[in-house]
Structures are given as C-alpha cells and as structure tokens.
Design goal:
about 600 residues; mainly beta; 5-stranded mixed beta sheet; 5-stranded antiparallel beta sheet; 6 helices; 39 strands
Length: about 600
C-alpha cells in the first residue's frame, strides 16, 4: 500500500467559504494524489471539509477523522459513488473545533490502493445568539456512562435558544365572527413559535464533532418568514439527507450544510415538530390550516392539527384535518396540564398551575378547545404500511391511529371525556395472558399498565412491530400530584391487537429513576436494532431548576437487561431553555450511498 503524508497549508484551510463562493480551488498539498482540503465548503458547517478529487475518480473511499489525544473517538466511514459525484470531492465529517485535526483518507485508483494523511485546522465555533442569561457560548456535553461497544456512537442534538413566545412576527388577529369570509381577519396560529437553532453532534466523550451555523436557516431580523420558525422534525432519509420542518417551509439538509427547502402548499402554515417519510419518499408533515372556519363559525388559523402528505415534487397528495376526525372539544387532559411548560413555551412563574379551558378565550397558541387553539398538539407521525394508516401522538389527547379514509381505528388514552362515537375506539388494557386490567376513567390502572400523558414520538418498533412511546408524564391520572417531585417520565412499549382492540404494556423504563429523570416536554424514544437498545432523549430534564442549564439526557437502555449503556447529559447555554430531540448519526448512511 502506498502511503503519502500531506500537510495542509494555512491558505488551504482558510479558503473554504471563498471556494464555495466560486473562487478557484487551492492546489493540492505536497505530493498528494487528490486535491485541496477545503474547510466548511458550503459556508454553514464549520466542522466539515471537502477533499477535492483533483480530476481523479477514486473508488473504495474511506475516511478516518482521528480522535483527539489518547481517549478521543475515531470517526470512520465509507463514501459512496453518488456522494463523490455530487460534491466532486470527499466529505470529511467530525472535525474538532479550534483544533489541528488528523484525517486519513484511503482509496483505490487505477487498481492500486492509496492512503493519504491530512492535517486540517479548524476555527472555534461561534454563536452570535447570546444574551446576559447565557452561561456559556455553546452547549456542553458530559458523558456519564458509555458501555463497551458503544464508544463509536454519535448523537445529533436539536436544541434552541430560550423561547420567549413573543416573536415580533404574528398573523392577523380578531375574535369576532366571520362575515361570509369577508369580515374579520383570521385569528391565532403559531407564527410566534420560533427561536434560533443550536444543532450539533456530540460523541461519547462529550465532544462536539459537528455544528450547524444558525445563519444557514435562521435570521432573527428577517421579516420574510422563510428564515423564521423552529428547526425541528429530524429523520435520516437514507439518501444522505436529514428531514426538517421550520415554520413555513420543510425539506432536507445534509451534514455539509446544504439545504433543500420548499414552502408549504398554499393554504397551510406553521409546520413544526415532525417531518417523517413514507416508503415511497412522500413527506408526512404536521402543519396547520390558514383561514379555516372552525366549529364555532370563526375564521381562524388552526394550531398543530393538520397532517399533510406531500410528494417529492411538492404536490399535496392528501390532508388529514384532525379537527374533523377527533373531538376538538375534549378537554380532559388539557385541564390537568402544568402550564409552566407546554411544548417549548416555558413560564416558570406558572409552574404547577393548571390550564383554564374556556372556548371564549382568544384564539392562538394556547391550550384550549376548538380548532384555532392548541387542542391537539400533534408532535409525531408514523406511517404504518400494513394498512396505509398513520399513528399520531396528540400531546393533549393521547395516541391514535387514523386510516386513509380519515377514520379513527383506535385510541390509546384514558376513557374520560370521549364522545360516544370515539369511545368505541378506545383500546382496552390487558395483561400478558390477555386478562382485562381495570382502570379508572382518568387512567389509574391496576397491575402492570399505565397510559401515556403529554407523550412524544409514538413510533413503531422495528424489532417486533410494537408501539414505542416517550411518556413525558405531565398530568398523569388527569391531575397534578401533591408534590411536583412525584412526577416521572418513561420509555414505554405497547403490544396492540387491532382485532381484539386490546393493548398490553410489554416494556418500560424510567419510573424507577423518578423526578431526576423527569422530562416534562419535548423528548423522543425509539428502538435500535443494531445494539438491541431503547435509544431516547429527555429534552427537558431539570427544566424547573431555576438558574441552571437544562439537561438534554441521551440514553441507550439495553432492551433485555434494562442496563444503562449510554448516558450523556447535554447542557443548554441558557438556564431553563429547552432541547427538542436527538437522533443517532450514522455516517455510512449519510455519506455511503
């Protein structure tokens, strides 16, 4: 094997933005076969680089970004032909900030194998969205537990700056009845739901190995809503990209910092929380309807209660109007919510207080009944191909499966408050032998069963087809406990028999961790087949500890033994701010195609 050592020059390492803007490429260093190593080639991802192919056509390409020091984590991945062609170069992902990185690239050229070593200098990460509340400039991560065999894990964390829930932008507002569509302007919507993103990858040493420049997607001074909103809803699309939604647009981005974004179809607004994919490549997006005549006859912008199916060309294929499918007047859980934290709207002065539900309240992004208020709060979508249906997590109602013809197939929630039609769709809890479990109307059950409350991410388990849910646990039993410290959060799995309309709880973790593991809002969980673990993220752990950074807790729990294999705490820069979700980053998936 032929070995060549390449020392990248200072000029080469500081030309990334200029090269991306169209300047001539720097020459290769020394006697390298391949070309220049361009840091941050597209101007938005400062801990990446692109190695120019220098008019060569290498194959069998593998990149190693070497760990820092003796304990550092190597990032090793293959680069596929489509990726090479797309960038006319080799993507380098996982560099350390403010560091002289060591990178090895191996490849085959004209039947011969080569290996070249590069020294790649990076600058410090910068974050301009700071104020007097910030404890540090960028998030910090603390690795608490990393079991053998998990050292190579990489976690993308979706964090935001503190939400004031009072943006300078807002839709037109009114409260009076419409006049044949020409009278009062519409009310409400959730346009002010927005903040600057902090999007980054941490390794199992707690080091940041990737950072997205917030300017790539967000501009706090912009009047154009295309660069406002929350950057959310991440999923690896299997084609080198990661899905996202952000206010009035949706799309994908890659780890080199390129974005492919589209505006929502006309008539739909305020996308957030979820952008999942169907097997045919269509997007499933949780949005809202503009200029909607609601159940009270008012013209409103709805809040988090429409599901859009959009094809890859941007055509709107189907719509689920959940205000017509479920009951937007049901308020059983709404009345029990701790309004100190509803989604990422945080008001510590109101901690422990419950919501006042009044259909005469103003419309907008507040807990309440009727389309035009936050009655549903759908935060995840899962497509079930076996019957062409969708499974939805309604934070303020429960979990439900809805068919293509807009019918409710089942509901997983306590029985209180459902109308006569929907009450027949409630799943009945059973034990492992199929014996019925008694539960009160508010969901307090005997035996080994508990419903989810204010849950997130109701996704199917790849292992056995069961339903995996992040049970946040606020309003458990449709009440606030005597002591706030009695609250807890769970990862939970259910086995659903759709023929018998029964549900069995088959797995749980978190109740035993108590209040220190409680995550009142945000968060996610999913089963991982590669390590047989439940991977989850508590995005708001310690949210109520005044003056302290909020913990985003990354965990992988062994499915069989329930041993903690990974626990990493990510600290927000501002006290009492929030993280949203985390996903596992697989470089071979994102670069190997």
């Amino acid at each position: 094997m032929m070995k060549r050592t390449v020392l990248a020059t200072t000029l080469m390492l500081t030309m990334g933005t200029a090269i991306a803007a169209g300047f001539p490429s720097a020459p290769p260093a020394g006697n390298a076969i391949l070309g220049a190593m361009q840091v941050d080639p597209y101007g938005h991802s400062p801990l990446t680089a692109l190695l120019d192919l220098n008019s060569k056509r290498p194959t069998d390409v593998q990149v190693t970004v070497h760990g820092k020091g003796k304990q550092g984590i190597d990032i090793i991945y293959n680069v596929g032909q489509a990726t090479l062609n797309t960038h006319d170069g080799i993507p380098v992902f996982g560099l350390y900030a403010d560091h002289d990185n060591s990178v090895t690239v191996s490849f085959t050229l004209n039947g011969k194998k080569y290996k070249e070593n590069y020294s790649v200098l990076t600058s410090p990460i910068t974050n301009k969205y700071l104020d007097n509340r910030d404890k540090f400039a960028i998030p910090k991560a603390q690795a608490k537990i990393v079991a053998k065999g998990f050292e190579d894990r990489l976690y993308l964390v979706n964090t935001h700056t503190h939400t004031t829930q009072g943006s300078d932008l807002g839709w037109m507002a009114a409260k009076n009845k419409t006049d044949n569509g020409w009278g009062a302007p519409p009310s409400g919507g959730s346009l002010p739901f927005e903040a600057a993103p902090q999007t980054y990858v941490v390794d199992t040493q707690g080091e940041i190995r990737w950072w997205l420049d917030p300017d790539a997607v967000y501009d706090a001074k912009a009047i154009d809503v295309s660069k406002r909103g929350y950057l959310m809803g991440f999923h690896d699309n299997g084609k080198g990209g990661i899905t996202f939604v952000q206010g009035q647009r949706y799309g994908t981005f890659n780890l080199l910092g390129q974005f492919d974004a589209k505006r929502l179809p006309r008539g739909y607004i305020d996308a957030s929380h979820e952008h999942n994919l169907m097997p045919n490549g269509h997007s499933l997006i949780r949005a809202a309807k503009a200029n909607y005549i609601n159940q009270e006859g008012d013209k409103v912008h709805t809040v988090r209660d429409h599901i859009l199916q959009i094809d890859e060309k941007g055509n709107l294929i189907d719509v689920w109007n959940l205000g017509e499918i479920l009951d937007p007047y049901r308020d059983s859980l709404l009345k029990a919510l701790d309004i100190g934290a509803v989604c990422v709207n945080v008001d510590l002065e109101s901690q422990g207080q419950t919501a006042t539900i009044d259909k005469n309240e103003p419309y907008g992004d507040i807990p309440g009944v009727v389309s035009g208020r936050n009655w549903a709060h759908v935060n995840s979508i899962e497509y079930d191909p076996k019957d062409d249906s969708i499974i939805l997590s309604f934070r303020h109602q429960g979990v439900a499966k809805v068919t293509r013809d807009k019918k409710v197939k089942w509901i997983l929630a306590p029985s209180e408050g459902w109308n006569s039609e929907l009450s027949h769709k409630l799943l009945k809890p059973v034990d492992s032998k199929g014996k019925p479990i008694k539960c009160t109307e508010k969901g307090v059950c005997e035996g080994n069963f508990d419903f989810t409350y204010t849950q997130h991410t109701a996704w199917l388990n790849d292992k056995n087809g069961r339903l995996t849910v992040l049970d946040n646990g606020d309003g458990r039993g449709y009440e606030q406990p005597a002591l706030p410290t009695d609250k807890y959060t769970r990862y939970v799995e259910y086995k659903i028999d759709e023929n018998k309309m029964t549900v069995e709880q088959t797995w749980e973790y978190g109740k035993e961790r108590g209040y220190e593991w409680f995550s009142p809002i945000t968060s996610n969980v999913e089963y991982r087949t590669d390590r047989d673990t439940m991977f989850g993220f508590g995005g708001s752990t310690s949210l109520y500890e005044r003056g302290k950074p909020t913990i985003g807790r990354i965990n992988e729990i062994d499915y069989q033994s329930k041993q903690v294999k990974v626990e990493i705490d990510v600290l927000s820069t501002k006290p009492n701010s929030t993280h949203y979700r985390s996903i596992i980053v697989e470089p071979n998936s994102l670069f190997g195609f």
